[in-house]
Amino acid sequence: MPRQLAAPPSTVAQSTVMSLSRPSSTALSPMGHLAHFQHKELAMKMESGSVFIPGIYENQLSKRQKINEGQDIISNLPDFIIGHILSFLSAKDAVRTSVLSKRWICLWTFITKLRFGDRDHNSSPKKSKSSFLNFVYRVLHHLDSSSIESFSLTISEKYNACHVSKWISSAIDRSVKKVGVYSRKELNLSFHSLFKCQSLEELVWMMDCCVSIVPVPSFSYCLSSLTVLKLSGITFSCCNSNGPKFSNGPKFLTLSFPVLRKYETKNCTWSDVKGVTLDVPLLEVVSIEYKPVLLCASSYTKIKFCAPRLTEFTYIGYILPDTLVLDLSKAHIASAKIVPYKYADDTVEETGILACNFLRQFNANVECLKLQPSKFLAHAKDFVEDLPSFEMLSHLELDIVTGEILLALLQKTPSLKTLVLKRIIQFDMELLNSASVPDCFLSTLEMVKFGNFHGNEHELNLAKFLMENTLVLERLSVFPTWMLFGLNLENAKEKLFSFRKSSNLAIIEICTV
Fold it and tell me: CB-side exposure of 43: number of CA atoms within 13 Å?
């Protein structure tokens, strides 16, 4: 008997479709018509490939799986795509892929992001440094990418600055866009080549637990593509082409960053420079932290920001007289945070005066102001009362503040909507009975938050003053300290709820979580 061959899956599928779509020659009942149309719809879906019938395509699927079994799909990708994938690895791990096969021997040379770290070379310190130096030079020598996205260097040992300079120059020759250097040891490296790199979009230079003296050109310069600048632990020393320092004495420099958006510095100073002007028309964020171990005469460099689009400003540290000038004539600052530190040689009064003078630069432009510690202002009451009005200020945060200083500041904020207090001190009955009501109490103040509430007399006096005089207050939120609990907390609640409210909409909430 001749052997019957099984129909191929495609034939089975076609016959199934035909049988499902073929109308019956006999008359159909209503239910039969419904079944017929359902079968016809299923047949159309099968023809379009939108439905899967078990058993029909299983053979085809298994054949495809067998064909793809054992194939190296990644190796078939173009070199530049594999290079892009390897760029997400550290340079050492990317080079390690060269042992996979002959195809992979040189693929790592197409990476566009270089990330080096000497801690990846674990051995004795002397061998580790030598191994790391040789490795970086070999990678840069064999690199096949004509342009690179980023160059990152993290070092924990001290290296000769000439090596690092050559590595960065190699990256600059390939039109690098991002440069990041992180060092735990002193690294006195010139910025000459970096300041000439017009492709540079982001520069991060962080000296951890050390200070590095970095020579910079004594002339004005412009980085046309730089959008992010983050520096830490750097003392810039101005120099010229003929020697380490210019011979005509301290001078003024102008740094032009036409597209810079973000500027962050930590413990950075200028040596033998009278003044530095930053021309930054698109700058949006400034963050300065200045808490050096020692202050010297060279630290008193006047730095001026010409930043008409500044929206966020943060300053933490020592405030030196006339060293930071902000040209904010056209700026609208959404948020400003000022955290003044008292230097060892300064009195508390001097620190308060410096803080007041610093605040003057924001009077007409800031919308949200966070000031801490505000206790220094208590020793400069006359200067606080002499401050101009903060016409745009709608949000004010203070940490430790006296009643007198608080009322003096509230008199300067006619548009205030939200007041946040970390702690109030010295608001006695005499002040409660004699204080004049600020304008914001009558028209704009809607939200007040009390932090670290102890339930003492001064805090309760302020709460009473607020509730009896704020006409549009919507919410008074009280956050008791962890020491206020049990019967003492209940007594404080009872007193708070007993105060007369000028606003019928005011809600008092005790936030114990």
Answer: 17
Are both 199 and 215 inside the same structural domain?
A: no
What is the per-residue pLDDT across 340-349, written as a single tens digit (0 to 9) for each? 988 877 888 9
Closest listed residue to residue 371, CA positions, set 339, 417, 419: 339
Q: For residue 121, tell me if it sits in a domain.
A: yes
- Is residue 350's pLDDT more than 80? yes
Instruction: Map tokens 């008074």 to a residue.
Output: 476
DSSP string across 330-350: T--BSEEEEEEE--TTS-HHH
The Cα–Cα gap between 346 and 38 comes to 90
Mean residue pLDDT across the chain: 82
The reply to whether 313 and 391 lie within a common domain is: no
pLDDT at 360 over 50: yes
pTM here is 0.79
Is residue 275 a contact partner of residue 252, using CB atoms and an 8 Å limit?
Answer: yes
Do residue 64 and residue 85 come from a single domain? no
Q: Are residues 304 and 369 in the same domain?
A: no
**Residue 398, phi then psi, degrees to nearest 5:** -130, 145
Count how many domains the chain has: 4
CB burial of residue 218 (10 Å; 0-12, 13-18, 19+) = buried
**Which of 108, 228, 110 is CA-nearest to residue 180?**
228
What is the average per-residue pLDDT within 442-448?
95
